Amino acid sequence: MDPLLQAFWGLMEPVTLLTLFVSVAVGLIIGAIPGLSVNIAVALAVPLTIFMPTDQALVTLIGLYGAGIFGGSISAILLNAPGTPASAATIFDGYPMAQQGLATKALRISLIASAFGSIFSIVLLVLLAPQLANFALRFGPVEIASLLFFTFLIIGILSGNSLMKGLLSGAIGMLLATVGTDPMVGTPRFTFGSTALMDGLTYVPLLVGLFAVAEIIEEATRRFSQGERKFDLGDEDLAANRLRWSEIKGMLMPMTRASAIGSAIGIMPGIGATIASFMSYADAKRSLNKDDTFGKGDPRGVAVSEGANNAVVGATFIPTLALGVPGDAVTAILLGALVLQGVTPGPLIFITSPDIVYTIYFALLFATLLMVAIGYFAVRPLAMTLRIPKIYLMPCVALVCVAGSYVTRNNVMDIYVMLGAGVLGFIFNRTDIPVAPLLITFIITPPFEQALRQAITRSQGSFETFLTNPVSLTLGVAALALFVLAAHRSRRQGRAQPVERTQTP
């Protein structure tokens, strides 16, 4: 009980509560602005958390993460443009509701569903993470290397629409992680004679570049175009936008089902909230769309989409805490932030740092409650953030990117790394290559390399131990089965697409 009480009273300190409140409010604002995603918000906050105590750093990043997912639904409903990719499915019914004069009602449904999905996943996190960690404590180097290799494959296979693009992104992340000094023998690798690269590529400039700088370049190519504000919440009929208990009761089962789907997807590394929301929406449309109302302003469509993408938030912490494997790009950023704080996620964190685990639990719960309070009473002010001109917003973001990248080590090389990562992220966005596999493999490549080399050293250079170990053999068969299924899916999609042939005159 001592770590539990310590975490609770630590979170109750005025400075920590104020930090959580500010981070939730900022997360809502950034999530609501198209072009500024949750990934960008968390990435920009990491340099600030380096100088904070661990509990304040955690509540800052978790507050931005949880609130930003809901914030994306504001622009999805009002502008038909999701503030975050996770809210893309909310457009299908949220925007038609706004066209019918029910924008406020749609936003309240989104808020309730977001809170429901978040709390659902937090309960799963508390129940499942310790059990998974107890199982993982039995792992040795062979099992750890096999698990991380399986993670590499599943991230590459399930991230994005293309098998080859997902694997390519993961391979580039692994390559970038090898820059620096060899951890076993101390030999420089891919440093090109630069002493600034002897410690490898710095984590903060890389993630700031991949997300924030890439988005700035993308917006610059669009000349910082501003979406037109289409709805004024002050002109709506208050009686029509009142949410009745009978409507909430009718959405409970769809929200529960969507939250379960979102949590299951959140546990699997590298998939993310966007896929969860689309899968839940497709499932609800297939099972509930008897009157063909989905896509025409059905409140259940908003509920299942937002319930699913917010259920991913807590579920992604299950593999992150129990195995040290990030569930998505944001938890990869959070994992890196924990490492910068001197905390190493994995099975031992429940033994060595239980106060950190409880702080994460409480931060997720309190962030959800604050999100509900702020979101309910500040819907109209949040909608006004859509008026902020990007021509003024993006230069401010660029300034924060440069300062945050430089302050980590006071090294100019980190600014070059940030710019290079920004160009790489921009190319990935234009070619539809997912960024999440790159970031996650960059995070887990060092422990994979260490476990792999330890296992090979113990077996005197033989890989036979991987073929005789039950855990590695099971994971290998599962990875092969996933690869075959993904390849079959890609081939079937390729055949389904019409082939355009040009005839020479």
What are the SSEs and their pairings?
Elements: H1 2-11, H2 14-32, H3 38-49, H4 54-79, H5 91-99, H6 103-136, H7 141-158, H8 163-177, E1 180-181, E2 188-189, H9 203-221, H10 245-267, H11 273-288, H12 299-315, H13 317-323, H14 329-340, H15 349-352, H16 354-377, H17 379-384, H18 390-407, H19 412-430, H20 436-458, H21 464-468, H22 470-496
Antiparallel strand pairs: 1-2
What does this structure look like?
A hairpin with a 6-residue loop joins strand 1 and strand 2. It contains 22 helices and two strands. The chain has a two-stranded antiparallel ribbon. It has 505 residues and is mainly alpha-helical. The longest helix is centred in the first third of the chain and has 34 residues, at 103-136. The termini are far apart. The protein is globular, with a radius of gyration of 23 Å. 72% of the residues lie in helices and 1% in strands. The model is unreliable at 499-505 (pLDDT under 50).
